[in-house]
Amino acid sequence: AQSVTQPDIHITVSEGASLELRCNYSYGATPYLFWYVQSPGQGLQLLLKYFSGDTLVQGIKGFEAEFKRSQSSFNLRKPSVHWSDAAEYFCAVGAPGSARQLTFGSGTQLTVLP
Amino acid sequence: GAVVSQHPSWVICKSGTSVKIECRSLDFQATTMFWYRQFPKQSLMLMATSNEGSKATYEQGVEKDKFLINHASLTLSTLTVTSAHPEDSSFYICSAPDLGDEQFFGPGTRLTVL
User: Fold this and answer.
1) Would an 8 Å CB–CB cutoff place A90 in contact with chain B?
2) Whole-angstrom distance, CA of residue B30 vs CA of residue B78
């Protein structure tokens, strides 16, 4: 069965600092990979996705993620965090060839200090 | 991008009553929709897959008689929490994939059972 691990429950960074959120997955093949952001009481917004090809993917709001097959990882990065980035971030995987059914990680809560 | 709406956004009900939550794809058709449940500070857990024109598929441990799902049309799925109890209080989120298999999430429904 596929699984997703986000080892950091809570991360605090200062505004303007760089950010990296970790995500590791377990799957028999390379799955489809996603990062979503959820603001309090809101639904999920897709930040970026990886299906195949270039392992460094660019997303919205200045985020990027790098797929590393050897490490089964898909870490999310941003060079300079803004206060509005404070939210919950979820990594998710979908079966290869289909993004229909997703398995989510436990999430990482990001706090941004002024 | 595509839009998925949910109604109501929040609901408070008495224990023993039933509550219906609607999920609509506003500008695209979805033969499949997904229902998730999210407890505070936790990840999304897939409850069931709603299929237009056929029975829903429930995840292990989800009571199908408790959480009734009806996919009435290509743009509407409903989740009815029957005989709700306080332990059913949660944040319920639906999603629908477009033709490109990208998932679009509704804003969620906060259910509180007194």
Assistant:
1) yes
2) 13
Q: Residue A42 pLDDT more than 80?
A: no
Q: Is A54 helix (H, G, I), strand (E, B) or coil?
A: coil
pLDDT band for position B43 (50/70/90)?
confident
Cis peptide bond N-terminal to A96, omega within 30? no
Nearest to B105 among A44, A94, A98 (CB): A44
- Please tell me which residue, B51 or B21, carries the higher pLDDT value: B21
Q: A33 in contact with B at a CB cutoff of 8 Å?
A: no
List the structure tokens of B36.
């998730």
Contact A104 B105 (CB under 8 A): no
- What's the one-letter identity of residue B27? D
Chain A positions in Cβ-Cβ contact with residue B106 (cut-off 8 Å): 43
- Touching check for B7 and chain A: CB below 8 Å? no
A109/B106 Cβ within 8 A: no
| Average pLDDT of the residues of chain B | 92
Report, in angstroms and rounded to the nearest whole number, the Rg of chain B calculated over CA atoms: 13
Sign of the Cα pseudo-torsion (B1, B5, B10, B15, in order): negative
Q: Measured between CB atoms, does B57 come within 8 Å of chain A? A: no
What is the reported pLDDT for A98? 64
